[in-house]
Design goal:
Distance between the termini: 51 Å
Number of helices: 15
Radius of gyration: 24 Å
Strand order of the largest sheet: 5-6-1-7-8
Shape: globular
Structural class: alpha+beta
C-alpha cells in the first residue's frame, strides 16, 4: 500500500542557528521577528523554561539574560538556504516530494515494505549532511502522515519516527481520540471551535463524522479531510493552502525616515518580494496598493494609502515596481517621518485564466523568461542575489537585526574557517 511520509525539521529556526554554534547544544535559544519585536521560534530548552511564543522581546529580555538564553534576530537567508539543503537531501532518496513549508515536506513511499528503516535513514542523513534534527510521520494519507509526525514529536520513546501501521488493530482510533480536532491538518483553532460546538472535539470524532453533513455545513475540503482520516488519500497541498487572494509585503523601519530615496528603496523591495510570491503560486494581479505609516503620536497613527490599477493583470516585477513607485510618489509628503511601508497585491487571478485584451499588446515572452531566470537565481543562491538597482538607493529602511547571526552559507565572507 502506498504511504506518505511527512518530514519536519524540529524547531527549525533555532536548529539552523545551532548547526554552526556547537556551543549552543543543550542551551535554550529563541529567534525574534522582524525588527527584533517578538519571539517567533523557541528551542525545546526555551519552551521548558516557560518562554511563550509571540511575546514582545522587551518583556522577557532581562529574563533571557538571567537564564542564559541565546537570542537571535531572524536570519531568513540562512534559514532559506538550510531548507533548500534539507529538501535536496530528502529528494535524493524519494522520487515524489511535495514541499509544504520551509521546514516540512511530504514524500511518497510507494509500496516500500521497509518504510520504518527508510524513515530512520532519512533522519540520520539529514542530521549528518545538513545538521537539522527531524521527525518523520507515516500514514496512508497526508492528513494521517501529518498527525503521525505530531505524535512522533511528542513521544520521546518513538525516537522521532511514527507509522500508523506500527499500531495493532483498533489502537489507531484510541490514539486519534487523544488528539484535539484543531491538530488535524487544515482545521486549526477557529474551525476547531466551530466543530467543537457540534460535538466534534477530537480527530476521532471528525473521522467518524458524516461526510455529507460536513460538506453541507463547512466545505468539500473538510469532507475530504474526513476521508483522509479514514485512510483515503484525496487532498492536494492546494486544497489545504489555496492560492492567496491578496499578497502583502510590509515592514517597519529600524528608524523613522523622511527621505524619498529611502522610501523608494523600501517600496521596491516589497513590490519585488510580493511579485516573487505571486509568480510562485502561478497568479497575476490587476491592482497594487502602497501604504505608508507615520509613527504613533498624540493624535494617533496616520496612515497613507494609494491603490493603482494595472493596464492588464501581470506578475512582472519591473511593471509592478513601476506602478508601486508611482503610487508612492502620490503619497509622499516632504517632512513626514515615516516608520513603515508596505505593498499589497490585489485582484489576483490564476495566470492560466487571464483573458487577453484586444487593445493591448500580448505579454512579451522575453520578459516572462527574464522573470523565470530571476526567480531561479534567487531561489538557488538566496533572496536578493539579483535585485533591482532602486532597492539599493538607501540602506536606512532596513529592519533592525542587532542580534543576527552570520550568513554562514550564503555570504562568502561569513563562511566558517577551520584553523
Amino acid at each position: 500500500m502506498a504511504d506518505f511520509a511527512l518530514v519536519d525539521g524540529n524547531s527549525f529556526y533555532t536548529s539552523c542557528e545551532r548547526v554552526f554554534r556547537p556551543d549552543l547544544i543543550g542551551r535554550p535559544i529563541i529567534v525574534l521577528s522582524n525588527n527584533d519585536g517578538c519571539v517567533v521560534a523557541r528551542s525545546a530548552e526555551a519552551k521548558a523554561l516557560g518562554i511563550e511564543g509571540f511575546l514582545p522581546y522587551f518583556r522577557i529580555a532581562a529574563q533571557c539574560r538571567r537564564l542564559g538564553v541565546a537570542v537571535f534576530s531572524s536570519n531568513y537567508a540562512l534559514y532559506g538556504d538550510m531548507s533548500r539543503r534539507m529538501m535536496t537531501v530528502l529528494a535524493e532518496r524519494c522520487a515524489r516530494q511535495e514541499v509544504y513549508s520551509i521546514d516540512e515536506c511530504f514524500l511518497g513511499l510507494d509500496s516500500r515494505a521497509d518504510r520504518l528503516a527508510l524513515a530512520r535513514s532519512l533522519r540520520d542523513e539529514v542530521r549528518r549532511r545538513v545538521g537539522i534534527p527531524t521527525c518523520v510521520g507515516i500514514g496512508p494519507s497526508k492528513t494521517l502522515a501529518k498527525l503521525a509526525n505530531h505524535v512522533a514529536k511528542r513521544t520521546p520513546d518513538l525516537d522521532g519516527v511514527f507509522d500508523w501501521n506500527m499500531l495493532p488493530p483498533g489502537a489507531m482510533d484510541a490514539r486519534l481520540a487523544t488528539l484535539e480536532v484543531a491538530r488535524v491538518w487544515g482545521v486549526g483553532r477557529r474551525l476547531g471551535e466551530q466543530l467543537g460546538a457540534l460535538g466534534i472535539k477530537t480527530a476521532l470524532d471528525l473521522k467518524r463524522a458524516d461526510p455529507g453533513r460536513i460538506r453541507r455545513r463547512f466545505s468539500i475540503v473538510l469532507e475530504r479531510t474526513v476521508a483522509e482520516l479514514n485512510g483515503i488519500s484525496c487532498l492536494n497541498l492546494d486544497d489545504v493552502a489555496p492560492p492567496r487572494q491578496q499578497i502583502l509585503s510590509s515592514r517597519s523601519f529600524a528608524q523613522r525616515i523622511s527621505e524619498l530615496p529611502a522610501l523608494r528603496a523600501a517600496v521596491t523591495h516589497h513590490a519585488t518580494r510580493a511579485a516573487e510570491k505571486l509568480r510562485t503560486q502561478g497568479s497575476r494581479c490587476a491592482l497594487i496598493g502602497v501604504s505608508l505609516g507615520t509613527h504613533p503620536a498624540a493624535g494617533g497613527e496616520a496612515r497613507h494609502w494609494a491603490c493603482l490599477p494595472l493596464a492588464a493583470p501581470s506578475a512582472d516585477t519591473l511593471l509592478l515596481v513601476r506602478v508601486a513607485l508611482a503610487a508612492l510618489e502620490s503619497l509622499y509628503q516632504a517632512g513626514c517621518r515615516y516608520h513603515k511601508a508596505g505593498v499589497v497585491l490585489l485582484d489576483i487571478e490564476p495566470a492560466n485564466r487571464q483573458q487577453a485584451d484586444l487593445f493591448l499588446p500580448p505579454p512579451d515572452p522575453r520578459r516572462e523568461n527574464l522573470m523565470r531566470t530571476l526567480d531561479t537565481l534567487n531561489r538557488t543562491h538566496g533572496h536578493g542575489t539579483v535585485r533591482l538597482a532602486a532597492e539599493a538607493l538607501s540602506e536606512r529602511w532596513h529592519m533592525r537585526q542587532d542580534l543576527r547571526s552570520p550568513l554562514y552559507t550564503t555570504r562568502l565572507s561569513d563562511i566558517p574557517l577551520v584553523r
